[in-house]
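Table S2 (continued). Query chain:
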Amino acid sequence: MKKLLLSLTILLIGMPTICWGNGACTTAMPFLKMGMGVRASAMGKAFCAVANDDSAVHYNPAGLGQIESGQMSLEYTKWLEDVSYTGVSGVYHGFGGFANMLLTDEIQTTTETQPQGTGKTFREMDGIFGVSGGISLTNHISVGGTGKVYSQEIGNENAKGFAGDIGFLCKTKQMGLGLVVQNIGTKMRFIDRKFALPTTIRTGLAWTGSWLTISGEMANILPEKKTVACVGLEGWLANVIALRCGYDSEDGHGPTAGFGVRLKNVKIDYAFVSYEKFEAIHRLSVSVKFSSRNVPESLNAVVTERIPEQTRIAPVAEETTQRRDQQLDSDKKAAPQAPCSYDQWLADIKEKEKVRQKQSSVLATATVATMPSIPAALRTGTSSVPTLQPAAGQPTKQVKTITITNDNAPIFSGPGTKYSVITTVPEGVELILVDDSKQWYYQVKLPDGRLGWISYVNCQK
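Corresponding output:
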């Protein structure tokens, strides 16, 4: 009788993801199929072609090869009645790790002679622990893999096993294509029965704009011989607030929704997940971005200008500097106000610098140090820019700068989201700070001479 009760428990406890509707319980560890990561859950689990945060360890480890910052998340969910879920995950420079646990409250043990309970209790505990790694093969293509140990314990009975994931990800500036095979492993034996793992092949396609992401995904669950479709959307307001929604067509599932709030390096995410035959659940997580990869020195040389302004220098160099500032002002007035891509922005800077280099031959005879051309900086791979020496008795004016802390940070034409976005800037880039008197926005100087405004949550002094 005890074995019968335990077998029934396997089918009824902790398996809400595949035991509803007309679906049949044919696989072990359905915990492996549960959507992990609050952001991805709010997007209907359509995430294998996005995979740009620490949830990549669950949805597509190839995404780790393209993540530029270290991240860590803590997640908690009150799962249905007396089942709670806790998860922690983190990524750093192409590697990741995670630990997830599903735990029930105490359950009364009953027998045929004591249907009201024997006074003894037991509980179920499922756990997954794993490590992931990803590497970029080119600027757009990356691959990755995950190895994980899983365990399931019900009362005095338990089972353990190993599984793995293999992922592929191709990303351009706006499009993403993901392919991942999940839960590759041997059958798990529990008591006197064997259960196959929920091996799944997922393919996804995603489009990402300056503030909107749309993703779709098809998942083929091999042991159950069924296909599931997922779609998800995510939109950002001022790169601070995210609104998300999605739909999961798996049996018993349905619409999803959620939001996120990002303040500096801390992000809070919430997801609402609905079910056909059970009450909806609420999921919450807190994420911290704790480091970023170094931006190539040549990139800083291109996009950072460190020449002090209004500095008394030798007459020839001073005249040349004034001519340079006048040219920058002229470029700013002539610059189009429509948004431009970062690649186009960089190409324009290089072209203008070539022209200025020909017109500035007088600098070769100046007695002060001069700034190297952008092509020269790129060839040498250095971002150091010699500082012009002031005349005797004149102090050097310090130029304040800010560093971009979020990728694709929008630069607005005015101090607020009601103004248009004139361009976006990658994470790690430094810009000259012009005005920090506003409460929420800083005015910055772009390398092409234009002025713009950036939210303080996307940068740091």
